Amino acid sequence: MGIMAIQSIIDGLLIGGVYATIAVGLSLAFGVMRIVNWAQGELLMISMYISYFVFNWLGIDPYLIMFFTAIVMFFVGFFLQKTVISNMLARETAVEPITVLLFTAGLGIVLSNGVLAFIGPKYLSAVTPYTAKSMKVLGMYISIPKAISFVIALACTLGLNFFLKKSEVGRAIRATSQNRHVASLMGVNMKQIYNIAFGIAIAMVGLSGALLLPYSTLNPDIGTVYSFKCFVIVILGGMGSTMGALLGGLLVGVIERLGTLFFSDSVAQTAVFVVFMLVLLFRPYGLLGKKISM
Predict the structure, then answer these.
(1) What are the two backbone dihedrals, phi and then psi, of residue 61, each rounded to the nearest 5 degrees?
(2) Could you tell me the pTM of the whole model?
(3) pLDDT digit string (tens) for 185-216?
(4) Of the candidates 69, 10, 12, 28, which has an alpha carbon nearest to the alpha carbon of residue 260?
(5) Which CATH number fits domain 2-282: 1.10.3470, 3.40.50, 3.30.70, 1.10.10?
(6) CA gap 81, 100 in Å, rounded
(7) CB 213 within 8 A of CB 130
(8) Which of 55, 178, 230, 274 could form a disulfide with 23 if both were Cys (CB 3.0 to 4.6 A apart)?
(9) 225, burial (CB in 10 Å: exposed 0-12, middle 13-18, buried 19+)
(10) What's the pLDDT tens digit per position in 253-285?
(11) Whole-number pLDDT of residue 294
């Protein structure tokens, strides 16, 4: 049982790294624009379908497809922010615009039902060169695609954190997230920063879709599952915190796997939400989050 528990923890950490990459975009969008993107999971679902069809039609390695999906989804996010969301933000007087929340919720429904109508409800899975492959390390079997996806997800999350701290654009994004008014007085082009930030947020989702392809099935409803996980992860780690999203993703992954090992999947999901509520109760800004200035 000890070996199985350790193996479950490792498996939870591996999938948790990818969870973090999905959630970090949601955290970034809220941190900069106070946008709650309810379509995060559905946009992930779209990126998974893009990765699936590109792989099946062209036979490109799924870990190369991630560059394509990340670029495509960046422009999707940039376009949505520039043409739709920015107009909604301009009309809103509230700090956290309710119209954007409703728009993204509607967008998620449109995307999931659109895929259901045009592709159908069937479950799809890609048989890649990495699918079902594992390696034995110290008597434990570790999924090769999960390990590769974890390393890439971790590198991308840490890379985004480095970009936000060291680059000029990244510093402008961080300044905007900390205090919009001061950032505007310092000459930051708020609209352009919003466009770039939301583009990056959705690009991380596009990247995650390709990372999930070698070991995950996809269907039109899969976005809902990931949407809830994303919100839990972001709240656990702290809204607007890149490293908080990473910590939250790893924590959720481990809780899920250990809960499933010792009890059942339903108990595991319940445990995740119990931890979520406890964090909200005792640390309302998350484990690594801070109160955001408006």
Answers:
(1) -55, 130
(2) 0.91
(3) 677 788 888 899 999 999 999 999 999 999 99
(4) 12
(5) 1.10.3470
(6) 10
(7) no
(8) 230
(9) middle
(10) 999 999 998 888 888 889 998 988 888 888 888
(11) 46
